[in-house]
Amino acid sequence: MRVLLRVLAPLLGLAVALVGVLVLLEVVAASVRPDDGDGLVVPWPEWYAALARTAWTDAPVPGIAIGTAVLGLLLVLVGLLARRHDIAVDGPAPEITVTTSPRMLARLVGRRVRAADDVAAASVTASRRRVWVAAQAWNDAGPELADGVRARVENLLDEIPLHHRPRVTVTVQDRKGPR
To answer: DSSP string of the chain?
Structure first.
């Protein structure tokens, strides 16, 4: 969603800027040539006459209104969903706000998990509510490896002063190959 917002924001800004320049040109042209009834770029008299003949109940008007409302709601939804999903960390003082990104928490957990001798590889995904660890073990990994990985992750989460502690999910797969 953030990528979509980064594309939409300049496009909408450019559209608003173009409309502003067009209005400025029309106002300057109307002040320089007051007796000329036509606009410089936009044919205002024809548009005004066409809109004066159109009633609110005519066929295109409700459809345009509904389409505009749906487009506006979609833009608001994109803006709301594109917020950052930072993880709150307890600061050194109550008036100080400290956050970290889910990516950084995942890197910390991944380094701690990969530092173990019995783990061949690990993939970590973190969010505000959950930390997912997918570890690959060497040939003879038993169920105790999942408990060991979970304990390492829990110990790391104890060291980090997180405001809300995420739940930990660990899956372990055997890796075939030389040690």
So the answer is: -HHHHHHHHHHHHHHHHHHHHHHHHHHHHHHHSTT--S-SSS-HHHHHHHHHH--TTSTHHHHHHHHHHHHHHHHHHHHHHTS---EEE--SSTT--EEE-HHHHHHHHHHHHHTSTTEEEEEEEE-SSEEEEEEEE-TT--HHHHHHHHHHHHHHHHHS-BSSPPEEEEEEEE--S--
